[in-house]
Design goal:
The chain contains 15 helices and 15 strands. By secondary structure, the protein is an alpha+beta fold. It folds into two domains: 303 residues, Jelly Rolls (Sandwich); 65 residues, no CATH class. β1, α5 and β2 form a beta-alpha-beta unit. α5 crosses α8. The protein starts with a helix and ends with a helix. Belongs to the iron/ascorbate-dependent oxidoreductase family.
Length: 384
């Protein structure tokens, strides 16, 4: 039935750009479509590729799940601290994902974060329209699908985006985010030690400078088999701390199968991002990995999640050298040797398929996505 629906959509002669603009112009997002009573999802949201490329089996093994790590007392006892560091390092090496519990953020704060995002997405559409924008220089904005006009299909998701560091907007809700910042810095400290570095290393190179908060709302979907909440991707930042409600839907790609990240009360999901992997390649020898994950559309909801993404603040006055990079030759060929020479690329003598990028200008010239490209190629190499 689903395949027939997809084929019918492919055979239809319609103006996709017109439909995208019409959807965008409502400024009501997916919730607007649901409120209008749709029983068939719009064409722009049908994920044809999900049935072809992204339909690996989900693991049914109950004990096959990402690690849950209790970090209570991490700074009170040297033996306890060492054990926690070992568990964090193992999780980052084998999974790229883990959940932390007893992290010091009270449950009422976590509940308020979820409730706050829920309240925003469920307020009157005319109020939300004041924040609707695709101008990502703004510190606070709301829209549906940041890549609406570029993606092959839109996702079943609306999002509130807030830039919370280094220069947060004026808002009463800053204290919970400050707690997230504190926890993030703690994790960077422990992960530094897991890599055999000084505790402040990751903080000192700028990993905790920038914090972006994404508040997602995934409405109940009438045809969840035809769309996706969030497509398969790897995060582009250093580290992501995710708070999710109890509905579930997040999956991690591990050993070529999708593994459900079952919500645990009071837990925060943590994963390494592409910049984390790319910036530490020579230090960790790819020991810590950035992995693909996705969120399924479901026929129940709304599912609410709050993603706190640590990314370097890229203003010129705060740029720092992160570390050397190893870039596959194809990246250079795609970008052009003359351009890359201007940003500090040299040919490696030991292996002519690798290029070393010693200057962080690479990040400025290519943008954040360059690290994602690099890590995507490495993921493909590991899968072969």
């Amino acid at each position: 039935m689903a395949a027939c629906r997809i084929q019918a959509e492919n055979d239809s002669d319609y103006d996709r750009q017109r439909d995208l603009k019409a959807f965008d112009d409502t400024k009501a997002g997916v919730k607007g479509a649901v409120d209008a009573g749709v029983t068939k999802i719009p064409r722009i949201l049908i994920q044809e590729q999900r049935t072809k490329l992204d339909d690996r089996p989900a693991s049914l093994e109950p004990n096959f799940s990402i690690p849950i790590i209790d970090i209570e007392g991490w700074n009170e006892d040297e033996t306890r601290r060492h054990n926690i560091i070992e568990k964090l390092g193992s999780a980052c090496e084998k999974w790229g994902f883990f959940q932390v519990v007893n992290h010091g953020i009270p449950s009422n704060i976590l509940e308020e974060m979820i409730d706050g995002i829920h309240r925003f997405h469920h307020q009157d559409v005319e109020v939300k329209k004041e924040f609707y924008s695709r101008d990502y220089t703004k510190k606070v904005l709301y829209n549906s699908n940041f890549d609406l006009y570029q993606a092959p299909a839109a996702s079943w998701r609306d999002s509130l985006t807030c830039v919370m560091a280094p220069n947060p907007p004026n808002h009463e809700a800053i204290p919970p985010i400050c707690r997230i910042m504190k926890l993030g810095i703690t994790l960077f400290e422990l992960l530094s030690e897991a890599l055999g570095l000084k505790p402040n290393h990751l903080k000192d190179i700028g990993c905790a400078e920038g914090l972006y908060v994404l508040g997602h709302s995934y409405r109940a979907c009438p045809e969840p088999e035809l769309t996706i909440g969030t497509r398969k991707h790897a995060d582009s930042g250093f580290l992501t701390l995710l708070l999710q409600d109890q509905i579930g839907g997040l999956q991690v790609l591990h050993e070529n199968q999708w593994v459900n990240v079952t919500p645990a009360p009071g837990a925060l999901v943590v994963n390494a991002g592409d910049l984390f992997q790319a910036s530490l390649q020579l230090i960790s020898n790819d020991k810590f990995i950035s992995v693909h994950h996705r969120v399924l559309a479901k026929n129940v909801g709304p599912r609410i999640s709050v993603a706190c993404i640590f990314r370097q603040h890229l203003s010129p006055e705060t740029l720092k050298l992160i570390s050397p990079y190893l870039v596959p030759k194809q990246c250079v060929l795609n970008r052009g040797a003359d351009h890359l020479a201007r940003v500090g690329v040299g040919v490696g003598s030991s292996n002519d398929t690798l290029f070393r990028v010693w200057n962080q200008k690479m990040i400025v010239s290519w943008g954040i996505s360059s690290a994602s490209i690099l890590c995507t190629q490495k993921k493909q190499m590991r899968a072969q």
